[in-house]
Automatic annotation (TrEMBL):
Domain of life: Bacteria
Keyword Kinase carried by entry: no
Organism: Paraburkholderia unamae
Similarity section: Belongs to the bacterial ring-hydroxylating dioxygenase alpha subunit family.
Obligatory cofactor(s): Fe cation
Annotated region (Disordered), positions in chain: 14-33
Record-given protein name: Rieske-like 2Fe-2S protein
Database matches in InterPro entries: Rieske_2Fe-2S, Rieske_2Fe-2S_sf, Ring_hydroxy_dOase_asu_C_dom, Rng_hydr_dOase-A
Rieske domain location: 68-177
Amino acid sequence: MPFHYPKEVVPGEYTIAPEAPPGSHDEKSPPMRELYPNRDDYLHVSPERYFSGAHAQREWDGLWTRTWTCAGRASDIPETGNWFKYDLGRESILVVRTEADRIEAFYNVCQHRGNQLVHGDFGKSERFTCSFHGWQWKINGQTNLITDVSTFKPEVLKGRLNLPSVRCETWAGFVFVNMDDEAPPLADFLAEIPHFMQSYQMEQMHVVKDVVIELDANWKVVLEAFLESYHLQETHPQAKPFVDEVHYQLDFFRNGHGRLHTAIGYPSPRCEDRSTVAPGLAYMLAEAGVDPAAYEGRAMQARDALLAAKRVPDNPYGIDYSGFSDSQVTDDWNYSIFPNMTFNTHPEGVLVMRFLPHPTDPEKSYYHVWVISRKLKGNVRPPAYMGVEPHVDISGETRPARRYNSKLDNELGEVLDQDISNVEGVQRGLHSRAFRFNRYSEQEQRILQLHAEIDRYLSAAPPQ
Ligand SMILES: [Fe+2]
């Protein structure tokens, strides 16, 4: 029987907690139109945005070099001299712990002939030495050695030879950088995000999975696959028995950020059978300490059972859930930080994704998946859909290596594998003579917001 989207449901306007007081986590935002009066201009967008070199150049000049983006985790540089490399498009940035409580960022480029100073992802150094002629900088970016300095005419070495710095600030254990000296501080840029996400205490979580995959699709094609739940019914049919992707809440925050709340442990109205407990739901119950064999409730009551099991002080996860609303305890709150990050937040752990443009080809991008986890009791694992393999140590004792996986052998788990299975077909289809423009439903409003906010940057950028 074909499913008819209920007439009475306004997509994104379902409010799980209508009584949510102002400022509380679940509070529904005003509709998108209040922040973007021109939202309807984005109901169609041109395919060129996803493959044109000229558009990619406008994004580089107007967006990437002017906004805050996440460079990495502060926990990856625990000691003075620890550094990590952050490649954003054609630029490479070196993020260093220069003192016990100080993190700084520099352009990763030798001031002699332009060689990159570090090539690996992570490291620890007392000096940064160029592998070409041995020029050397201290970890705080000050020039330490110019090899055979007397052989340079004085005017050749005039001006600043320290490593040029990049603005760098930290929030929730994530290090952000910004190449624009005129941009507002990170806290202003993040707007409502820190307030709503504070209960997760992500600064206390540790990395348990770190995978990067190069895809033959523009970064926005890949990101957009994670900004709506409209695709669940076709792309993730196995999730229908325990994800209600019809009644959900969409929130729109300032500066392009947003979120999508989806109830978990509750069958979709698209399911004909909403009583029988499906295997995926049984797994969730078991994990929360509810024996599925003894569970007598219907599938539609499982979310309540999950909530009750987690609210017990001695719950199997060893987590104090008292700082979380009921919907945070059981459901998926998918936050997005403009321009290129999403967070599927749960008290136990967070699935973090970053969508990075390719240095030269707008039809390629890097899809970066991190899973960060709280310290969990016993054998409990982060939520199964995050794809953390059973053999991976999630205690926080060892930091798993970053994996550069192929798209076919991506090791992302079933759900994310399904997500990325569509994006390269989309990228190819965008070129078709028979495809004129994307058309977005009201279920895909966060994509309208993405394009509207990108255009705010592009129109603010002076012509190059
Ligand atoms: Fe998906």
